[in-house]
Amino acid sequence: MSTTKTSTTATRSTSSIRASRPLMGWRTVDLLTVTFLGAAFGVAYWAWGQVYAVPGDALGALFPPLAAIVGAPWLLAGVVGGLVVRRPGAALLCEVLAALVSMLPGTRWGFSTFVAGVLQGLGAELAFAVLGYGAFGIAAAAFAGALSAPLEAVYEWFTYWADWTWGWKIAYLLILTAAGAVIAGVGGWLLTRALASAGALNAFPPGQEAREHRAV
Amino acid sequence: MPSHRARRPGSTALSEVATVLPRVGAGRVEVSGLTWRPFGRREPVLTDLDLAIPAGQRVLLVGPSGSGKSTLLRALAGVLQVADSGELSGSVVIDGAGPHERAGAVGLVLQEPGSGVVAATIGRDVAFGLENTGVPREQMPQRVADALRAVGLTMPQDTPTHALSGGEQQRLALAGALALEPALLLLDEPTAMLDPGNAASVRACVGEVAAARGLTTVVVEHRLGPWVDFADRLIVLSSDGRVLADGGPRRVLEEQGADLVAQGIWVPGAPAPQPRGIPAGLFEPGRFGANEVIVDAADVTVRRSVRMLSGATRSTVAVRGQWLQARAGQSLALVGPSGSGKSTLMLALAGLVGIEDGVVRAHRSLAAGGSRSPRDWDTVDLARAVAWVPQWSSSTIVATTVLDEVLTTARAVGMVEVEAEARARALLDLLDLGPLSQADPRHLSGGEQRRLAMASAVVHQPALLLADEATVGHDRLTWSAVMGVVEGVRDAGAAVVLTTHDDAVVARADRTTSLARPAQPPAAEAPRRPLLARCGPLSLLLGSAAAIPAGVLAPHWTTGLAVLAVQMVLAGVGLLAPGRGPSPEGRVRRVLVRFAPGVIGAASVAWSTWLLGGRDLDVAAGAAVRVLVIVFPSAVLIPFVDPDALGDHLAQRLRLPPRPVVAAAAALQRVHTLGDIWAEIARARRVRGIGASRSSPKALLAEVGALTIGMLVRSLQAAATLAVAMDSRGFSTAYERTWWAPAPWRRSDTALVAVSVLPLAVALLG
């Protein structure tokens, strides 16, 4: 740190603030924030796994593919991890760790939980990558939430819904995608904003956005 | 950003730094023109600071709250921008180079015990810096043993880090820094959160290692008395981050002692501060007679359990057979070493933890819903009678302005708004928070948030005030303010219970109760280990994964059933525990508990398949059996996955990038604390009158949302603190890491993978 000067020129615009360059230059706090977020989501995922069946079965009784709606909260970690840290791999790492943490104490799905985490995380990661790790607004979040769903849905076709008709399978995929966009995407965006305004993301771009928003 | 200047993989500097030892007389510090303004603050925390510390000097750094002492330490360690962003200018030079030139050249010990712990065992935790700097594994045990000996930790190296007391954890952090042969040692209020015995042990230890190794040492401490003999030099910072006084400790104290006392600094020998007087009539006269018993705890025993990531629980007796009475108009100090159950006993008084044995009874006029046990009361009744100020106040904030925050409980219990607001404003003024009444409480400093929590607790004038370590980290001025409120509430007739290590608080208490650590039941003899316990995490996960294709590929439910039968036989073999010693308990029960949700899941899948598939039982059975085949091996194998070993295996066997793996392992390490955080926030909400109520689903949802946010905020704070601790031990440049523990692939692993293929073969051939 000898004779250095650092300053960040905060350009106020409608676009998102990117992570510091180089994009792959993960700081320690980036890594720990993603993994701690993942661990906390993992605990919440586990808890949701204990109770989701009640609303899930109720929806499934109306029309079985509707049960996809209660699957959407499990897509949150990837979206939030990506929105907070904004580096390549953040969404995937966060979702995978959440899945791992929720799997270890025991879930309904065993190792399948972990596979699901990888597929969901890859989907969210793909969305942020398509946007060049440069857009993190509500639309980008919804896009990431939506893309978290398809791989997972296809995996479930083979493991759980193998005997459904194609119509139901497609309906399941579409419902999970839509619920992912709303619950995980928009929900994740709101959650990230709440964390930023709580002052918990000061070292990250969302924290900087919250400060600039206040400064207006 | 200088502190993140990445040294890319392949850099040769890494192998060199590992072998560099400090030169004799190293540790010379030059700071010039250092200015730091965090984004979001108008004024800099440090302003154009110049400082030169010769090698080997021992510096005591003091100043009022908010004077930037900790900030300066972080700047000296080169970790200022690890978890915060802002404008930094000026320079810090250690022995002619930046603080980052040699990883571990600057050792940093943080205030909160355990906040820098990265590993599950003490040996591994000390080795963390050695791993980061690429020290070969064979050299580690010796260097770790030397460091542990230097700080007087004599227990085995595989002692779990969570089993240490706060003082031992601080000495562990010191050992972790010493293992890297630092030239400069920085200690950020290392004893602030410790009981007197532990604090003395840490001070003695710092004195010894600094003398033995000739370390340049900088200690930040609020209570400077016990450090005066240690230090060669005393530097006083002013509230705006400039050097106010600098020189030999005794001379500075002699010449400027009175000034420093006026600034709020705890000058040794100065008389204890007096609690600030509160305005007459601020509180109403209480409705209880003097010394009436408000809450009576008789023969109370509390057992606390922590749910571990493995699904197992670890339980300890926190309080054993304690008697306590909180009386109107009296303050009671609860003292005793950490781990003696002070905080837990206090929680039991408010019914905020369940008790295993004994009775907690409130005054009969406080009875609610026909019960005198606070545990049975609903959130509003509890809030009306009891207030609790937790040690951690930041995560219990619910409002968006300071004034609303203070009024939260008063509103919940239906106090008249104008009276509540008048009292709230008076309390805020008294606690020097008046000008901040419209500020967002989440953006206050830690000290301000603690004072805010005190104000919020007493506006509605509860009959019982419980405060956990209410004076930690305060300077003389804020101490006076906080104690003024505490005594004001007491003098208005409330019963007050304070857990504390602070002699000045004990001296002012009407009564003192001293607790000792409760005896724990002896540990049982280690049972025999099942065969599966000899397998590493990767083979266990592979075995679980192999079940997915086996389930998907089984063509018919009869084949699936055959696959399941094979899996069950193999599970039976894997759970055998040959050898001597007591038989391991609950092996089958554990599998059943984990398998039961899978069975329910299978039933639900079968149902939806049956609905669709023309009510065909064959198809439904196929779907159900498929799910059972997929989840059964996981129920057997995953409990044996050791989260600590997982990181070793992922990095060394699968060659995953080391830094993300270490970060993941560190997070897994902390998962069990999340339950505690959740419970503490839930308690704080309940006692403030805004907890979940059985009657309202809406309140329940709000509660879950608030708890989730609170838990995330605390996790993020823990991550930021840990990032500072890890970077001060060379983690930011640890691209080529060595590992303390090997990750062997044993014959048992090969056997497990081979055997896991059998069900798959049955599925394919069936």
Enumerate how many helices of chain A there are, as a single number: 8
Sheet having the most strands of chain A: none
- Hey, roughly how much beta strand do the residues of chain B contain? 15-25%
Query: Which oligomeric state applies?
Result: heterodimer
Q: Which structural class matches the secondary elements of chain B? A: alpha/beta
Number of strands of chain A: 0
pLDDT averaged residue by residue of chain B: 88
Which structural class should the secondary elements of chain A be placed in?
mainly alpha
Distance between the termini of chain B: 62 Å
Q: Rg of chain B to the nearest angstrom?
A: 29 Å
* Helix content range of chain A: 55-70%
Beta-strand content bin of chain A: under 5%
What characteristic shape of chain A results from the CA principal axes?
Answer: globular
* Percent of residues in helices of chain B: 40-55%
Largest sheet of chain B: 6 strands, mixed
Overall 3D shape of chain B = globular
- Count the E strands of chain B: 17
Strand order of the largest sheet of chain B: 5-6-7-3-8-9
Poorly predicted regions of chain B are: 1-24
Describe the structure.
The complex is a heterodimer of chains A (216) and B (766). Chain A has 216 residues and is an all-alpha fold. Helices cover 66% and strands 0% of the residues of chain A. Chain A contains eight helices and no strands. The longest helix of chain A is centred in the last third of the chain and has 32 residues, at 166-197. Chain A is globular, with a radius of gyration of 18 Å. Residues 1-13 of chain A have low confidence and may be disordered. By secondary structure, chain B is α/β, with parallel strands linked by helices. Chain B has helices at 13-19, 69-77, 122-132, 140-150, 166-178, 196-213, 249-263, 342-349, 379-385, 402-412, 417-430, 446-458, 476-491, 503-508, 537-553, 557-574, 587-612, 617-637, 643-652, 658-687, 697-727, 747-765; strands at 29-38, 46-53, 58-62, 86-94, 106-109, 184-188, 216-220, 233-237, 243-247, 293-307, 313-327, 331-335, 357-362, 386-389, 464-468, 495-499, 511-514. Chain B has a six-stranded mixed sheet with strand order 5-6-7-3-8-9, with helices on both faces. In chain B, strands 14-15-16-12-17 form a five-stranded parallel sheet, with helices on both faces. In chain B, strands 2-1-4 form a three-stranded antiparallel sheet, covered by helices on one side. In chain B, strand 6 (184-188), helix 6 and strand 7 form a beta-alpha-beta unit. In chain B, helix 10 (402-412) crosses helix 11, helix 16 runs parallel beside helix 18 (617-637) and helix 17 (587-612) runs antiparallel to helix 18. The radius of gyration of chain B is 29 Å and the shape is globular. The N and C termini of chain B lie far apart (62 Å). Classes of the chains: A mainly alpha (216), B alpha/beta (766). At the A-B interface, helix 1, helix 2, helix 4, helix 5 and helix 7 of A face strand 4, helix 15, helix 17, helix 18 and helix 20 of B.
